[in-house]
Amino acid sequence: MSKIAYFQCPTGISGDMCLGTLVSLGVPLEYLVEKLNGLGIEQEYQLRVELVQKQTQQATKIHVDLLHHHHHHHGRHLPEIEEMILKANLPSQATAWSIAVFRQLAVAEGAVHGIEPEKVHFHEVGAVDAIVDIVGTCLGLDWLGINTNKEGLPLIYCSPFPTGGGTVRAAHGQMPVPVPAVLKLWEMRSCPVYSNGIDRELVTPTGAAIATTLVRSFGSPPPMTLKRVGLGAGSLDLPIPNILRLWIGESSIHHSHVSTTATNVLHHHHQNLHHLETISVLETQIDDLNPQAIGYVFDTLLAAGAVDVFTQAIGMKKSRPGILLTVICYPEDLSSCEEILFRETTTLGVRRTTQQRSILQREIQQLETPYGQVGIKVAWQGNDTEKFITNVQPEYEDCAALARKNNIPWREIHRLALQSWYNLNLQYQP
């Protein structure tokens, strides 16, 4: 089971609303304060929690009260903030996520003003607020134990964003809403947005930076068993309650790609001989497409993360010869693969199924042959103490490159590579 999260933002998202949802879900305020103290800015602010009513609904409001007697007259730049976070001795995921969010925010602000991300100035008030909101949110998500994928990103999903409207006062005078940094962050991630008719600032730069950095995909809630919901209040009075909702659920879909490096596979402690994972299968039959387009679809799908793509010749209605196109991919790549099928082929419908597949553990080993280096794919069963090598295959492309370069038959290079591998690994002689 994976623990996953979904941000539902009917009235947008801000840093303090994110923090509110997490405290509402049980992240202890003392824990946040203790960890945030490592940043060295505890003299500059105080954290306060309040239960508030929004249109008769109760939600958790977090206040970051700035202590104005302690003036930090300069703002802070990205390198300084990154250094603060690195020195704060936070849990490793919270550190990585916090830095990623600040980087994303600095990249967006920099693009808006036409300067390098490192030169972006998080001015005094905004800086402390943003640091507490961003680092606090990352600490809370880490504390909740949201599962991650192989890139270390949390399995967090998010609804489309309401655009808001009107204007807002900023350091540089009046600004249209959404403010430029928010618009830039949405553009960077191609976020879905809509207007709910409320002309206020609903999505703040901090909220947008947290979401666009940590969220895997935007849209409807993913399938999950709902376990708990956190309610974080914003500071606006709106026609609908200004509350961000964070759904925590369990998903049986195996989100993380299976790691192909030997070390990681063995860290998973698979005592069984092979490994089960969840895979999505897309298929569609096509009888009216130029065959050249199929070759292009293959490459595009594989580039988008498909694990395998294949076609079969079939007979279709009106006695037309057609093909059945099948794509195997991980559940998290399903929508991008499906998008490619609709864009690049004439299909009008794509079927999807979720299947289990059992896979051998494998790794690529680099090997020197008299003609150059070849990668060898080695698959095995068992664990560290007992490995049963079941399959040894030289990589096709490596052999092909050497065959072309040396004007030697491909089969010869392939045979040499295999022979060299077995010479090095005498215990596995075929």
What does it look like?
- The two termini are 40 Å apart.
- The strands form 7 sheets. Strands 11-6-1-13-12 form a 5-stranded mixed β-sheet. It has a 4-stranded antiparallel β-sheet with strand order 15-16-14-17. Strands 18-19-20 form a 3-stranded antiparallel β-sheet.
- Strand 19 and strand 20 (387-394) form a beta hairpin.
- It has helices spanning 15-24, 29-36, 78-87, 92-113, 124-144, 180-189, 205-214, 262-267, 291-303, 334-344, 396-406, 410-424; strands at 2-8, 45-54, 57-66, 76-77, 121-122, 156-158, 161-162, 167-170, 173-176, 193-194, 215-218, 225-233, 243-251, 275-286, 308-316, 320-329, 351-359, 361-369, 372-382, 387-394.
- The chain has 12 helices and 20 strands.
- It has 430 residues and is of the alpha+beta class.
- It has 3 domains: 2-251, no CATH class; 275-359, Transcriptional regulatory protein pf0864 domain like (Alpha-Beta Plaits, 2-Layer Sandwich), CATH 3.30.70; 361-428, Ubiquitin-like (UB roll), CATH 3.10.20.300.
- 34% of the residues lie in helices and 32% in strands.
- It comes from Okeanomitos corallinicola TIOX110.
- Keywords: Lyase, Nickel.
- This is Putative nickel insertion protein.
- GO terms for molecular function: lyase activity.
- InterPro entries: Ni_insertion (IPR002822).
